[in-house]
């Protein structure tokens, strides 16, 4: 399970560098932010990235969130985020092997107005509680735009979701912004899912 915000900083569109990174990693499930492609999706992304791809991208957003999956999507939608105008929260329920579905939520919290991020986090937890059974598998993924794991928005989420296995790079660094000093991108499973994820099963980009 991976999350990625790898669009070009100028165009805020996925171009060759970001696509090549994803092709090399070949995640089974990808929560993606700024899900814009210059020539459409999935035609521009070779099959080496995901075979038999299933995807959901939120509608009506300038910088949409989305989910790409090897597994079929049983249901999908978006939840309104009242704090930002150009995107909402995207979610998809995946038909993974086994008795339980997996609910994936793809988010991109505000870069500016840090005071709005904790309300966004509390809203997300409330939406997850209301829409998904606690006994199902749930993972919240995305770009939180936080400066540290002590940020209030993160501590709100980590009170109910699992951060015990933080994705790290080849140098053991869990930070994901360009300067590698802030943990912008996170993959947070609920306790049910955290028990069954294998080592190395999470990736933040």
Detailed description of the structure:
18% of the residues lie in helices and 24% in strands. With 205 residues, the chain is of the alpha/beta class. The mean pLDDT is 89. The chain has helices spanning 16-25, 117-131, 152-158, 191-194, and strands at 2-4, 29-32, 54-57, 66-69, 73-79, 89-94, 102-108, 137-143, 185-189, 203-204.
Q: What kind of assembly state do the chains in view correspond to?
A: single chain
Number of helical segments with 4 or more residues: 4
**Total E-strand runs:** 10
Order of helices and strands: EHEEEEEEHEHEHE
Give the topology.
Layout: E1 2-4, H1 16-25, E2 29-32, E3 54-57, E4 66-69, E5 73-79, E6 89-94, E7 102-108, H2 117-131, E8 137-143, H3 152-158, E9 185-189, H4 191-194, E10 203-204
Parallel strand pairs: 1-2, 1-10, 7-8
Antiparallel strand pairs: 2-4, 3-4, 5-6, 6-7, 8-9
Helix pairs in contact: 2-3
């Amino acid at each position: 399970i991976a999350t990625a915000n790898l669009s070009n900083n100028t165009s805020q569109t996925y171009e060759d560098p970001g696509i090549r990174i994803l092709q090399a990693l070949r995640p089974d499930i990808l929560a993606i932010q700024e899900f814009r492609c210059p020539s459409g999706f999935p035609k521009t992304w070779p099959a080496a990235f995901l075979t038999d791809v299933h995807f959901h991208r939120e509608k009506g957003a300038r910088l949409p969130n989305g989910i790409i999956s090897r597994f079929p999507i049983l249901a999908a939608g978006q939840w309104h985020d009242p704090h930002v105008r150009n995107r909402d929260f995207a979610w998809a329920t995946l038909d993974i092997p086994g008795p339980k579905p997996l609910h994936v939520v793809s988010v991109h919290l505000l870069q500016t107005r840090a005071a709005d991020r904790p309300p966004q986090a509390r809203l997300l937890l409330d939406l997850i509680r209301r829409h998904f059974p606690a006994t199902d598998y749930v993972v919240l993924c995305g770009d939180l735009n936080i400066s540290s794991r002590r940020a209030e928005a993160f501590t709100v989420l980590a009170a109910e979701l699992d951060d015990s296995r933080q994705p790290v790079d080849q140098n053991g660094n869990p930070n994901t912004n360009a300067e590698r000093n802030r943990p912008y991108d996170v993959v947070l499973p609920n306790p049910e899912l955290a028990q069954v994820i294998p080592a190395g099963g999470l990736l933040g980009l």
